[in-house]
Amino acid sequence: MKNHHIFHDMKNIEIDDLCVNEKYREKGIGKKLFEEIVIFGKENGVKCIELMVWEFNQDAIKFYESMGMKIRIKRMEYII
C-alpha cells in the first residue's frame, strides 16, 4: 500500500500451500523446498515469508517452527 501513514512498502513471499505427499515426508523434501524459497527471497530483496497454518495442523506448525518461523498474528473466529 503506497503512501499510507501506517503501512510501508515491502516485498513479501506468501506461501499458499507447501505440501509433501505423506509417503515422502521425513526425507528433507519440505526443508529443501523451504530453503529454496528463502534463497529466492534473498536474491529478490524480500523482507519476509508469510503463510497461514491451521491451529490443528501441529505437524505443519512444528515444521515451520523448525525452519525458524515465528507466530506474528493469530486469526480468530466466532462460530454462529
Based on the model shown, name its key terms:
80 residues; alpha+beta; Aminopeptidase; two-stranded parallel ribbon; 2 strands; flat
Could you describe the 3D structure shown?
With 80 residues, the chain is of the alpha+beta class. The protein has one domain: 3-Layer(aba) Sandwich (Aminopeptidase), CATH 3.40.630. 30% of the residues lie in helices and 10% in strands. The protein has helices at 29-43, 58-66; strands at residues 12-15, 48-51. The chain has a two-stranded parallel sheet. Strand 1, helix 1 and strand 2 form a beta-alpha-beta unit. The radius of gyration is 15 Å and the shape is flat. The model has no long low-confidence stretch (mean pLDDT 91).
Q: What's a concise summary of this model?
A:
The protein has 80 residues and is an alpha+beta fold.
Query: What kind of sheet is the major sheet?
Result: 2 strands, parallel
Order of helices and strands: EHEH
Radius of gyration: 15 Å
CATH H level: which superfamily? Gcn5-related N-acetyltransferase (GNAT)
Q: Low-confidence segments, ≥5 residues, pLDDT <50? A: none
Q: What is the terminal-to-terminal distance? A: 33 Å
CATH architecture field: 3-Layer(aba) Sandwich
As for the number of domains, it is 1
Q: Specify the structural class.
A: alpha+beta
- Overall helicity: 25-40%
Q: What coarse outline follows from CA principal-axis ratios?
A: flat
Rounded mean pLDDT score: 91
**What is the number of beta strands?**
2
- Order the strands across the largest sheet as they lie in space: 1-2
